């Protein structure tokens, strides 16, 4: 089994990993708090939340399997090298568990609070159904072959696809409304920092091991960082540059729920994204 060559790099790896965990975990709360204060989820795209649940559930299956299962770890090393370090850390598992729980809680808020005319689109429902159907097919293929690492890699692929897709409905919704009211920018800033620290955690491991296999050995972790960073920058451009008036209004979340256009027939939110 691989071991760390530098104690300092090992410490830095763990520090970056838990910084990413803290940042990404806290990033869920600004939206949850905003929903609670407004008693409304108008402005939060439901497709984003539903796709996010599929993404984080798939990522949890991958992370937990590769971190805890010696069989999956053995098959990983058989594919990428017997001396390769497992590219999943404890903070990855902890984040995945927390992300699933908070996403489920956000879905509960969608059920409880004012939704206006918003709803989950048929497109999102179909995408989620296809993703889990594909996962079921992979399970049936893997069982007779005992291809457990291949199976969890299928879940990792699903989470990569969901990571790419999940942000698009919210970007489109902000564009249609010409506003980011109801969508917390605090979530995005923390998500951006988490993506940066998560990526550099992988860089530190590669430097210590003198190998870049962990980047494509765990393509999901690589993509979750890069895609998150890309879309977070886009959301920041929307919030601070394209639709800056939304920032001033969202500073008072209570007033947002009284916006005359929210929930009316003329509101772009009445269209399913």
Output the helix-strand order.
Answer: HHHHHHHHHHHH
Number of strands: 0
**Count of all domains:** 1
Mean pLDDT across the residues is 86
Distance between the termini: 48 Å
TL;DR?
By secondary structure, the protein is mainly alpha-helical. It has helices spanning 7-26, 29-38, 46-68, 70-80, 90-112, 122-145, 148-177, 185-209, 213-217, 219-242, 245-250, 253-256.
How would you describe what is shown here?
The chain is mainly α. It has one domain (12-254). The chain is built from twelve helices and no strands. Helix 2 runs parallel beside helix 5, helix 3 runs parallel beside helix 6 and helix 6 (122-145) packs antiparallel against helix 7. The protein is globular, with a radius of gyration of 20 Å.
Helix and strand topology:
Layout: H1 7-26, H2 29-38, H3 46-68, H4 70-80, H5 90-112, H6 122-145, H7 148-177, H8 185-209, H9 213-217, H10 219-242, H11 245-250, H12 253-256
List keywords for this structure.
273 residues; mainly alpha; 0% strand; disordered C terminus
């Amino acid at each position: 089994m691989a071991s760390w060559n530098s104690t300092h790099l090992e410490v830095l790896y763990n520090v970056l990993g838990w910084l990413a965990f803290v940042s990404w975990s806290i990033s869920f709360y600004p939206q949850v708090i905003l929903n609670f204060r407004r008693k409304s989820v108008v402005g939060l795209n439901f497709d984003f939340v539903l796709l996010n649940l599929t993404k984080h559930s798939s990522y949890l299956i991958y992370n937990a399997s590769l971190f805890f299962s010696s069989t999956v770890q053995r098959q990983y090393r058989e594919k990428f090298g017997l001396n390769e370090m497992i590219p999943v850390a404890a903070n990855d598992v902890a984040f995945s568990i927390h992300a699933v729980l908070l996403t489920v809680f956000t879905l509960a808020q969608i059920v409880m609070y004012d939704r206006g005319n918003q709803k989950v689109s048929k497109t999102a429902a179909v995408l989620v159904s296809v993703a889990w159907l594909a996962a079921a097919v992979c399970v049936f293929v893997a069982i007779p072959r005992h291809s457990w690492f291949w199976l969890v890699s299928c879940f990792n692929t699903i989470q990569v696809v969901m990571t790419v897709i999940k942000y698009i409905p919210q970007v489109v919704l902000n564009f249609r409304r010409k506003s980011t009211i109801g969508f917390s920018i605090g979530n995005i800033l923390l998500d951006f920092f988490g993506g940066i620290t998560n990526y550099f955690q992988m860089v530190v491991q590669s430097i210590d091991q003198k190998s870049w296999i962990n980047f494509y050995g765990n393509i999901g972790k690589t993509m979750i960082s890069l895609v998150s960073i890309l879309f977070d920058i886009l959301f920041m451009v929307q919030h601070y540059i394209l639709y800056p008036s939304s920032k001033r209004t969202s500073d008072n979340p209570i007033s947002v729920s009284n916006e005359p256009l929210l929930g009316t027939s003329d509101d772009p939110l009445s269209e399913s994204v």
